[in-house]
Amino acid sequence: xxxxxxxxxxxxxxxxxxxxxxxxxxxxxxxxxxxxxxxxxxxxxxxxxxxxxxxxxxxxxxxxxxxxxxxxxxxxxxxxxxxxxxxxxxxxxxxxxxxxxxx
Length: 103
Description:
By secondary structure, the protein is α+β, with helices and mostly antiparallel strands. Helix content is 44%, strand content 17%.
């Protein structure tokens, strides 16, 4: 868990992803459409990616990616992010985290 905390610390939006995951691509595109600039961590391209993936699974991420953190809070995966968007709650979260400044 400390490994995840150090990766998300002081960052408005962090997306843990795999470069070949289409759902990760969808979430990255959605968040970027708000003009946010998320930190994307492609765990399949990291030497310690398996450790990060295990930590995400222990956090409750099933599947392990995409895993989205906004304002250092775990938001969830694709379903949760899209649901927040449909409910018009994603933009306010991004504003509160200072990932975007106007909407």
